[in-house]
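wait is this the right file?? whatever heres the structure
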């Protein structure tokens, strides 16, 4: 199985076992749905010795998003962050253990003449596709602002770079893009009209695993969650040192540019998400949005029926761990950026 995954593995971040001896550390594999920023909390926990303190040696393997869930379910890796809700709705037995953000990253960027969301009536807006996550978020944003979606002309153009180009060329009046492209458009006279996270929620998993792992290796799950949560807490509470990790992982030389990326990521997490959890309202909205995506692409038959929140999320580990960390007065501020594992 691992050999067959060779073509989808894009990046391997290997932990070091030199201090304790390889035989003393348990090898754990985590599959990440993308390279770049999503790796930062894992890198922090490895470099600052949080995994090692739990007796763990971590490999982070980057795969495509849909593959990430598959390799967790197959047992080829132990944990992932790929977004398992479609699989769970289809009957897969796995849980989201910890989240990293609960707000989306997209900004609504519009032509200079548009100053209010209600002015999108009869305007052309570039979307990814009819069932894409950013499209559903945009529909929710319109609804929250009293704009009927059927009054807006939606034009499916696919990738963000293509939609960005169409906006600059004036062939569309607006689109949803991330902050980097939004800033570029703003520099050319376009308007950042709204941040979608001010209106809608969107969860991003930081750790998920199979029900079998939770049932058969709860001590291991506890250790992985504890070490990963420490990395997440360090990220949000020690901004300058966390920015140095962002610079390295994203290969950015400009501290201020990396700090802007840190600010955006921090903005995408509520106080609850920063400690790995989400509210019942956000969890429910996330599941319903995935249902709508599956319906839109004709995958309704894959949905096995009603599902409860505790069939999708298990925050029992992260909740208990956070309470213990807080009670112990653990201080992320005493750690600094390190290029080597402790």
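ok assuming it is, sequence goes like this
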């Amino acid at each position: 199985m691992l050999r067959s995954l060779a073509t989808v593995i894009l990046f391997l971040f290997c932990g070091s076992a030199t201090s304790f001896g390889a035989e003393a550390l348990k090898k754990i594999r985590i599959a990440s749905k993308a390279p770049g920023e999503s790796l930062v909390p894992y890198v922090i926990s490895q470099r600052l010795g949080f995994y090692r303190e739990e007796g763990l040696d971590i490999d982070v393997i980057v795969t495509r998003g849909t593959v990430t869930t598959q390799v967790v379910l197959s047992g080829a890796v132990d944990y992932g962050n790929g977004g398992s809700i479609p699989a769970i709705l289809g009957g897969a037995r796995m849980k989201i253990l910890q989240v990293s953000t609960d707000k989306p990253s997209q900004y609504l960027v519009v032509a200079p003449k548009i100053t209010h969301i209600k002015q999108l009536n009869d305007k052309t807006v570039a979307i990814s596709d009819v069932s894409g996550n950013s499209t559903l978020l945009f529909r929710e944003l319109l609804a929250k602002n009293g704009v009927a979606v059927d009054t807006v002309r939606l034009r499916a153009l696919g990738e963000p770079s293509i939609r960005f180009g169409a906006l600059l060329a004036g062939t569309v009046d607006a689109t949803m893009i991330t902050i980097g492209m939004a800033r570029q458009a703003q520099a050319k006279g376009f308007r950042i009209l709204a941040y979608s996270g001010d209106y809608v929620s969107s969860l991003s998993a930081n750790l998920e695993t199979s029900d079998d792992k939770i049932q058969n290796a709860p001590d291991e799950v506890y250790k992985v969650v504890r070490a990963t949560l420490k990395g997440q807490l360090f990220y949000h509470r020690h901004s300058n040192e966390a920015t140095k990790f962002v610079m390295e992982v994203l290969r950015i030389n400009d501290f201020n540019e990396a700090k802007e990326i840190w600010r955006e990521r921090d903005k995408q997490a509520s106080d609850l998400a920063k400690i790995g959890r989400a509210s019942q309202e956000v969890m429910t909205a996330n599941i319903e949005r995935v249902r709508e995506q599956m319906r839109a692409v004709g995958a309704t038959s894959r949905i096995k029926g009603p599902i409860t929140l505790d069939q999708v999320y298990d925050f029992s580990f992260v909740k208990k761990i956070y309470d213990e960390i807080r009670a112990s007065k653990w201080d992320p501020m005493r750690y600094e950026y390190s290029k080597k594992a402790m």
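Residues 46 and 262 are 19 Å apart (CA to CA). so i think its the right one actually
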